[in-house]
Specification:
Rossmann fold, homodimer, 14 helices, 12 strands, DNA-binding, 434 Repressor (Amino-terminal Domain), elongated, 6-stranded mixed β-sheet
Chain lengths: ~350, ~350
Amino acid sequence: MAHKVVNRSTPGILKCMALAQVRDVAKLAGVSPATVSNALNHPERVSASTRQRIQEAIDELGYVRNDAARQLRAGSNRAVGMILLDVGNPFFAEVARGAENQLTTSHRPLLLSNSNQDAEREAAQLGLFEEQRLAGVLVTPVGNVLHRLRRLKERGTAVVIVDRKTGADEFSSVSVDDKLGGRLAVDHLLERGRQHIAMVGGPQNLRQIKHRLQGAQQRVQQSDSATLTFHETPTTDVAAGRLATLDILAKPRSTRPDAIFAANDLIALGVLQELVRAGVSVPDDIALIGYDNIQFSASATTPITSIRQPAEEMGSRAAELLCDVIDKPGAPVQHTVFQPEIVVRESTTGA
Amino acid sequence: MAHKVVNRSTPGILKCMALAQVRDVAKLAGVSPATVSNALNHPERVSASTRQRIQEAIDELGYVRNDAARQLRAGSNRAVGMILLDVGNPFFAEVARGAENQLTTSHRPLLLSNSNQDAEREAAQLGLFEEQRLAGVLVTPVGNVLHRLRRLKERGTAVVIVDRKTGADEFSSVSVDDKLGGRLAVDHLLERGRQHIAMVGGPQNLRQIKHRLQGAQQRVQQSDSATLTFHETPTTDVAAGRLATLDILAKPRSTRPDAIFAANDLIALGVLQELVRAGVSVPDDIALIGYDNIQFSASATTPITSIRQPAEEMGSRAAELLCDVIDKPGAPVQHTVFQPEIVVRESTTGA
DNA sequence: AACGCTTATTAAATCGTTTCAATTCTGCTC
DNA sequence: GAGCAGAATTGAAACGATTTAATAAGCGTT
């Protein structure tokens, strides 16, 4: 009898089990590819007995679905991507954890990546996400990416902004009132009798930091004696805090601040390290307050007062909003704004 | 004149620019889809003038390649995946950073995810990676996933094990000599005159921790007076360290250890917190040594002596090995074993 | 045994890109 | 201007899954 010639290198199983596909599974189970697909994606459509036979064939062959093909046909991808400003910062790690937990309950894989606060990297990552036709993206914008985000949205990818409220109501967002945070910090310092505050913080093009500074300035202006200076740092890590502190300590003693407000806790830790090394007493000589309330600020040489942001909750809420956007495309955009809280520790109060 | 009927909703640009594809670009640029593809993937095959025309069409339409289709046809994916034990642990974050930097130079996107030391999550992540036919995977195994990794390898996905040398020479790996690390830690404590050491550490099924314990035990056995007890914790975070410490402090004072060896720095920080809170002097009453030398251990209440692992280097080396495996499939497996070093700080020496 | 009616299964079309082989075009030599 | 090499371009066939609409099978009723 004549056989149709099969164009694959047919010895199949023997040759190289690298490429088992639905049709192999189907053949082994004695059904059609369509049935295999149904068994996988709509189990209720296929009888229990064939389902089992198919499962056995799958196990036997070690079949793993080719996601590219699936996606191409399905036209969509369940996964969502998240671009972090900096994985090395425990604050963002915690936000990511919150998002991940939430997404896991929605059975959506999360792809993490980080921009390192580099607009170019961010753009590259967005490009990847775009090419992958992800269901959604969680992003803390660093560069000028609004047009990219718009394009993503037009393409049907949901977008939620994390840790920053965009002016326009284009995207749902999760954020924290950074101006309030800045005010809280300064308020606390003034209450403790400090008058000359130095704020140390990463590049001003980071919205969050700019707002914290603005809040701080507002509060300072309400007092007629207090002063605020801003020491801009190129990055937001421990090293930045150390360098800035060296600068501050190099000044004549008379112009030294009596309090330092660090734009985040990593910077605060750096500041603390150099103050300790220079023999400056915290808080007696200089009080120190950080931002983010990462867990390490509580166990620092001198436990650091900090402005708490509900990191994990922010992540999970962002993920929740994202799922909303994905699942109900018509729904209005939503903004969740969290309130920062001050967590007072020794670095501003003394032992 | 008669037109062939196009099956797409043709108003195209007007209707919804969501779906510009090669054929739209081709039409606008007055060439065939094949040429567009060539312009994108093999620019040298297409003349400068058409290349430019195509580029203009792409910009005009906002065309973004559909990666699923590309992959399906190409059969491969440049991206590599990495499964971290815990993003919240700065050590792993730093390893990831190293890998990411290295991979960026090879123009390979990195997909991060974390298993949270949960075998089930790990398996799920591996499943995703498998379905995506990634070029390679960097993984620190937690569950029993050797068979999955083998399958990945058979399928053509490169695998490199991070932070653990598998017995068999199946996969290239990057690791640190954890037994030596354990010995170094105990050695240092004994040298400082400590005799009764308590090791506090996460689940023993984590290879790294088991090895650190073994190394510690070996060293203790070389002394006839020293003792070592092991306090197993279910996790490897700050909270675990705190809980274990409460247990230790609950014991009668006479049986208290005079030194604690924490299996990592997060645990060490937790231990330190509870010791401080209980008024136990570090290192006078109890010396403390951690592991990983994360940057926060240097700025703790009492700076913590720690065993340094070259995190970033490990990540970049792992990525390098992975690229080797991907690019030269025939090459032999390679193992890079880093040596840990002790970084001495106050927590074992006094001020 | 013919009839509806539900349930299981399948053949064939499709997703959007890349690639191969074939074709057209270009410029150049003799 | 015929002949030709090489470059530029293209039509049509993949890639591997899913889906739709159609077919087959089962099953109780009359």
